[in-house]
Amino acid sequence: MTPELPWLLWAGAFLLGGFVKGALGVGLPLVAVPLLSLGMPPQVAIAWLVVPVLVSNAWQAVEGGAVRPTLKRFSGLLVAQAVATIATVQWTLSLDTRQLNAMVAFAVLLAVVLMVWQPRLDVSARREHACGVGVGLLSGMLGGVSSLTGPVIITYLMALGLGRDAFVRSVSVIYLLGALPLYGAMLAVGHIGWRELALSASGLMPMAIGLLAGKALRQRLDDRWFRRVLLAFLVLLAVLLLLK
What we know:
By secondary structure, the protein is mainly alpha-helical. The chain contains 13 helices and no strands. Helix 1 (5-24) runs antiparallel to helix 2, helix 1 (5-24) packs parallel to helix 12 and helix 2 runs parallel beside helix 13. The longest helix has 25 residues, at 164-188. It is globular and about 50 Å long. The two termini are 13 Å apart.
């Protein structure tokens, strides 16, 4: 690997991750973490996403409004997710780089399966709280290992039949509060320091450029074609991580 390649990976990961988030509304960690993991340990890749993930989701959550009702509705999910995330992070930090690469690859492949399958679930209002707790535990475990809570959360929110604005608002709040225990635990054990925060903050510019480009092209892109290319790219990343 040449000395320049890590920086190309850095810029490309934030740019492409931002583009996918701008085009689809989600997908920043799903693209950036496995791409960065090709050139660095997964723990470092997750740490480099701290600032862009928090800023982008906080912005979308505030922009969507109605934060308090969203917190009340998904309180069980958020608490369960936080507990599972903290417990899983402590276990994950003891694994070596190869094992973590395999776990990130698994999380990416799970995302691909769910995006292709697009399961149509039906969650009634009576069962929503109990289902939310289960989803929170599962997404928290997945997030603690790889920071990729998206696949499980998106599938669950789609099952609730939320409208477009409610979906974006809810997923942003859940992503934001799901990231806090993950990054807090990594900060507590010393896996995130000032250097990682500075490098993470420097990723805001390429992420923002990608985000704006994705938004601008959202209406022009064929959604089916774009998703197929994205899925193929994610499968390639997963395979490369397994072979690394």
